[in-house]
Design a protein that fits this description.
By secondary structure, this protein is mainly alpha-helical. Helices cover 46% and strands 8% of the residues. The strands form 3 sheets. Strands 1-2 form a two-stranded antiparallel ribbon. Strands 3-4 form a two-stranded antiparallel ribbon. It is elongated.
Length: 380
């Protein structure tokens, strides 16, 4: 038994002495020193290149911003026209050509980077001496362009208005077909250089249509006028008869009273329109008896009621005067020799007023305008 245990103990010790140790894991293959050097060099080159690009871009942006903000080359005020539908590149090129900016590329990139590339507006612009590219950009963005005036005085015909529009060299394009007499609003219209002539006419006509309708809708209820066409016609006669603002309602009352009584209007401007049309009587040519005796539908010395259409473009004051005439019994008026008129309710009184006016005409010092075609509504 002792021998058994001795052998078993010996066997245990023998087993423990033969324990297995784990084998080490295989090591990955090592890169060569040459390979590691190539990767490092490549990465360093990439980093250096990126840094160089960033520095160059920063320097370029700094230079570009300085150029964009520094005073420009102008030494005196200059104007430049931006046509409609013109892109940033074309605008920049034109500004450089005209010496308003120093570098078209810098201006174009500055405009685009600022996000205003699509906000530059057409028009004619004035630039102050030394204006920077940023100043130029802001001016074009604001749309604060030079405005030109087209003025159509009250009482002008469509023919005369068209002549002025056609001869305005800051407008562009062809004239439209002539609109009906009386349908252009006399006023001063501010327009940009390059505005189409058709657009100017359209604005004038739209403005007159709106004005006439607004006044017509608020007219006195007892006017002897059938429709808005007759309303414009009578207003055009009042417009041509007097240029004195305060007289228009009084002159309108005379014609309204005559229409109510079935009397002829006996208005000089109407037969002159019938003879000479929208072009008007030539300056310096006297009014003749044959003019007064002319056989046209506009001769209100021969036809009763209103002529077939307006004889001019009436302004707001004349339209208001016809819509709300003064309440009088007057049926006549004649020039007073000072630019205004004297009014009368009877033919006898009127004849006396005419005699006084004829006496004034015979006085050389009176200096009356023999060509004035606005002046009488007499007893005919």
């Amino acid at each position: 038994m002792n021998d058994h245990y001795a052998e078993g103990g010996q066997g245990s010790r023998g087993y423990r002495g033969r324990q297995f140790k784990p084998s080490p894991a295989p090591e990955p293959p090592k890169r060569s020193r040459h390979s590691r050097n190539q990767l490092v060099i490549f990465l360093n080159l990439c980093l250096s290149a990126a840094l160089f690009v960033l520095l160059a871009a920063g320097a370029l942006l700094y230079w570009g911003k300085s150029e964009f903000d520094r005073p420009g080359p102008l030494t005196k005020e200059a104007t430049y026209v931006v046509p409609r539908s013109t892109g940033v590149s074309a605008i920049a090129s034109g500004l450089e050509t005209d010496g308003i900016i120093s570098d078209a590329d810098v201006f174009e990139y500055g405009v685009r980077l600022s996000g205003t590339g699509g906000q530059l507006k057409a028009g004619e612009y004035a630039f102050a001496p030394g204006a920077s590219m940023r100043d130029v950009m802001e001016k074009l963005k604001s749309g604060e362009s030079i405005m030109h005036a087209v003025t159509i005085p009250e009482g002008w015909t469509v023919n005369r208005a068209y002549e002025r529009i056609e001869n305005s060299d800051f407008l562009t394009g062809e004239m439209p077909g002539e609109v009906p007499e009386g349908t252009l609003k006399p006023d001063t219209y501010l327009v940009q250089r390059g505005t189409p002539r058709k657009e100017v006419v359209r604005r004038m006509k739209t403005a007159q249509d709106q004005l006439v309708k607004e006044i017509w809708d608020k007219r006195d209820p007892d006017l002897p006028i059938k429709d808005i066409g007759q309303f414009i016609t009578l207003a055009s006669i009042v417009e041509r008869e007097t240029g004195v603002d305060g007289e228009r309602p009084h002159v309108a009352s005379v014609f309204v009273n005559r229409l109510k009584k079935g009397m002829r209007l006996d208005s000089d401007p109407t037969f002159l329109y019938g003879v000479y049309g929208g072009a008007g009587k030539p300056s310096g040519q006297p009014v003749t008896q044959s003019d007064k005796d002319s056989d046209t539908p506009y001769n209100t010395y021969k036809v009763k009621g209103l002529p077939p259409g307006p004889i001019a473009n009436p302004g707001k004051a004349a339209l208001e005067a016809v819509a709300h005439p003064m309440q009088t019994d007057d049926l006549y008026f004649v020039a007073d020799g000072t630019g205004g008129h004297v009014f009368a309710a009877s033919l006898k009184e009127h004849n006396a007023n005419v005699a006084k006016y004829r006496a004034l005409e015979r006085q050389p010092a009176a200096g009356q305008d023999a060509d004035k075609d606005a002046g009488t509504a007499d007893g005919g």
